[in-house]
Amino acid sequence: MYLEKALIIYDTASGNTRIIAERIKKRLEDLGMSVDLFRDKEFKAFTSVGDYQIIALGAPRHGNWPAFTLTRKLKPLLKMDLKGKKLITFASAGGPRHQQICQKIENFIKPTGIIPVTSIGCVGKPTEDFDMVLGAALQEKMFQR
Ligand SMILES: Cc1cc2nc3c(=O)[nH]c(=O)nc-3n(C[C@H](O)[C@H](O)[C@H](O)COP(=O)(O)O)c2cc1C
Q1: Could you read off the pLDDT of 54-91 as tens digits, one per residue?
Q2: In the structure, what pLDDT confidence band is assigned to residue 1 with cuts at 50, 70 and 90?
Q3: Phi, psi at residue 122, to the nearest 5°?
Q4: Contact indicator for 120, 133 with CB cutoff of 8 Å
Q5: Distance from the Cα of residue 80 to its chain's centroid
Q6: What's the gap in Å between 79 CA and the centre of ligand 1?
Q7: Domain ranges of the chain
Q8: What's the CA gap between 132 and 107, in Å, rounded?
Q9: Which strand (E) or helix (H) includes residue 14?
Q10: In whole angstroms, what separates CA 58 from the centre of its chain?
Q11: Structure confidence at residue 27 (pLDDT)
Q12: Is 32 in contact with 143 (CB distance < 8 Å)?
């Protein structure tokens, strides 16, 4: 069976979005994928992006936007053709409007042709019921070809 490869890139200031990123990694691995995870400022391998079928991008909410350090770092992606790849967005916010941040990450990267499949939001740090959220948000059928 062909092994799907997923790339996760996240930004964080106080660690909450990192926890989401790590939980997404675990969930995708449980679904049988090979997953590489990077903090945005450590990500340098733009030439390897073509190797991944799934890309997950996440950031904390800063004001009404995803932390600008993520989008600044990922600008080289905008020059790439990501058609056919699947996008997962995720965000942590102090209040309930994390979905808006996922939407803004999606809008940022959409010109590449990537296909949004799901988004995952969280208020602050993920709690014990987060596995249920992940189970619903990341289902095997979304990634079947
Ligand atoms: C500079 C800054 C601005 C923020 N602005 C907002 C905001 O407008 N709305 C909100 O709900 N949370 C806001 N937050 C809270 C963070 O989104 C929230 O604490 C999040 O869980 C942090 O994630 P992190 O631990 O990955 O950095 C802000 C935090 C910082 C540091």
Answers
A1: 999 999 999 999 999 999 999 999 999 999 999 999 99
A2: low
A3: -155, 140
A4: yes
A5: 17
A6: 29
A7: 5-143
A8: 26
A9: none
A10: 5
A11: 96
A12: no
For CA atoms 112, 118, 124, 125, the dihedral sign is negative
For ligand 1, say whether the CB of 122 is within 6 Å of any of its atoms: no
| pLDDT tens digits along 74-84 | 999 999 999 99
DSSP-assigned states of every residue in 84-120: T-EEEEEEEESSSTHHHHHHHHHHHHGGGT-EEEEEE
CATH of domain 5-143: 3.40.50.360
Read off the tokens for 73: 């770092």
The residue to which tokens 């909450």 are assigned: 16
Are the beta carbons of 33 and 142 closer than 8 angstroms?
no
Q: Which of 61, 97, 104 to mutate to test the pocket of ligand 1 (most atoms within 8 A of CB)?
A: 61
Burial class (CB in 10 A: 0-12, 13-18, 19+), 51: exposed
Dist CA 11 CA 17 (whole Å): 7
- Residue 15 Cα: closest atom of ligand 1: 25
Predicted TM-score (pTM) of the model is 0.97
Strands 65-66 and 54-62: antiparallel
